[in-house]
Amino acid sequence: AIQRFGFEGTPGPVQSLSFLDPAQIAPQSISLAMLENGPDAFVAAVQPQTNQVRLAAFFVNGALEIPWPTNPWPLNNPNARTAIAVGPDHYIFVAAENQLRVFNAALSELGAFTLPSTVSSLAVNQDGIWVILPEENRVLRSPRLVTLDQALQPPAWQDVTLPAGARPISLAKDPASGMLVLDPHRVLIFNAQGQPVSTWTGLDNLTF
Question: 200 CB contacts (<8 Å, ≥6 apart)?
């Protein structure tokens, strides 16, 4: 289910949506993204019975699922996780294992790309897309995959330089269009071009 919470002072969820049959979805595989200025929610998950990625989209305010027909997306590992993010102009980016697919606002697939290894987290800002490759302990970034004239171009991956001992776990876009990289002990803050800006420390050895 999706649970939507109100602002401060509104206790508990204000809405709950049931969508995917929990008996057919691997719970650890689920990822969720929402539009910054709209009510739509996008969900990716893995169906272990078929080893396929399942995608779902919703009008959250109306509790209405939107049909999202997709090409078959078979996986090698039924325990794989997914990652999903919504970028500028409402383009949707979904990753599972080492595959990245791009969809437009009408939920039509624009293209697919192969990455060097499995992706555990992704995030998109005005300048491009960032991914974490946990097997290689790397963070990669690429300029925008969708050009201003709405053409799709292959990613041009560049390594983001991490401090010694960093173990990236998760990504999030910050309000200044930079990027936050979480590791078990700190949050690393980068600008949109991948240069380090600051670090938040004091996390107590997070485990995931």
Answer: 186, 187, 189
90-114: b (≥16 Cβ within 10 Å) or e: bbbbbbbbbbbbbbeeebebeeebe
Distances (CA, A) of 131 to 54, 74, 76, 173, 196: 20, 21, 20, 12, 16
In angstroms, the CA 145 to CA 91 distance is 10
pLDDT at 14: 44
Hey, what are 121's tokens?
């987290």
Q: What is the pLDDT of residue 89?
A: 79
Which residue matches tokens 């269009």? 177
SS3 135: helix
The SS3 call for residue 22 is: helix
**Strand, helix or coil for residue 24:** helix
Single out the residue of 68, 9, 60 nearest to residue 39, CA to CA: 60
